[in-house]
Amino acid sequence: MTSLRELVPADLFKFNSIVFDPFVEGYHMNFYLRKMIQNPKLCQVAVAPDDRLIGLLVSTRGVSKNKIGEEFRPTYGHISLLAVAADYRRLGLATCLMGQFTETVERYADWYVDLYVRPSNLTAMQLYESLGFVKFRWLSYFYENEHGYELRMPLCRDVERKSLKGITKYRFYWLYQLPYALFKEFLKGLKVLFFW
Ligand SMILES: CC(C)(COP(=O)(O)OP(=O)(O)OC[C@H]1O[C@@H](n2cnc3c(N)ncnc32)[C@H](O)[C@@H]1OP(=O)(O)O)[C@@H](O)C(=O)NCCC(=O)NCCS
After folding, report:
1. Which one of 33, 77, 144, 191 counts the least CB within 10 Å of its CB?
2. What Rg, from alpha-carbon coordinates, does the chain have?
3. Which InterPro entries match (predicted)?
4. Model-level pTM?
């Protein structure tokens, strides 16, 4: 039976088949070790019956700089990495890992969960939207070669959905960022023109 357990340092030598995917951001070993130490419960792996790692979720908790209602320093959960081995996809594994994560941050009474995703990652977008995440803001060139979205999902503590405050403003945020993005494209074009 597939089971979930905490990520341990020895797993870092076993999860290449999961993280070698164009949509998975590459991180240094120190990154994983730091996350494991910060909050081991929020770093989970899914293990197949043959002891193979088939799913991974790395997340952490943070304190928001922005005020939410009367709460000056609302806490939130942040997902840094979610990936499932290619031959175990569409079986509900990511949903299961996300469910376990949400249960943990709900127990900490956090306000919301956030993560960053590439707009071209339609599979992940569909997964997150099916779980209740909404596009909070558009981030110009968040990734080296692509823009990004910050997705957010309010948790039970945020009854009035205050963590989504400003979402309308951010819907049009890309309008402010557009001239900058176009200028960057223009510079890229010049670079190609002169250095080829
Ligand atoms: C995104 C990813 C984690 C999904 O894992 P998964 O275990 O296959 O997801 P689930 O089986 O739990 O799917 C849950 C829902 O997500 C959506 N979904 C998942 N895979 C999909 C696909 N290939 N096409 C369309 N929708 C898809 C569906 O809505 C699905 O619900 P349904 O099966 O009831 O229709 C996996 O495809 C993956 O590892 N991708 C590469 C890494 C990545 O993109 N990580 C996210 C970076 S932000």
Report:
1. 144
2. 18
3. Acyl_CoA_acyltransferase, GNAT_dom, NatB_acetyltransferase_subunit
4. 0.88
How remote is the CA of residue 68 from the centroid of ligand 1, in Å? Answer: 31
Could you tell me the strand order of the sheet in which 112-117 lies? Answer: 3-6, 43-47, 53-63, 75-84, 112-117, 148-154, 134-139
Count CB-CB contacts under 10 A for residue 155: 20
The ligand 1 atom at the shortest distance from the C-alpha of residue 118 is: 48
* Nearest-angstrom CA–CA distance, 106 and 117: 22
Does residue 95's CB lie within 6 angstroms of at least one atom of ligand 1?
yes
Distance CA 160, CA 165 (A): 10
Q: For residues 178 and 162, give the distance between their C-alpha atoms in angstroms, rounded to a whole number.
A: 27
Per-residue pLDDT reduced to its tens digit, 118-146: 999 999 999 999 999 999 988 888 998 88
Separation of alpha carbons 82 and 108, rounded Å: 21
* C-alpha to C-alpha distance for 164 and 14, rounded to whole angstroms: 38
Domains of the chain and any CATH numbers: 3-195 (3.40.630.30)
pLDDT tens-digit map of 53-112: 999 999 999 998 877 666 668 999 999 999 999 999 999 999 999 999 999 999 999 999
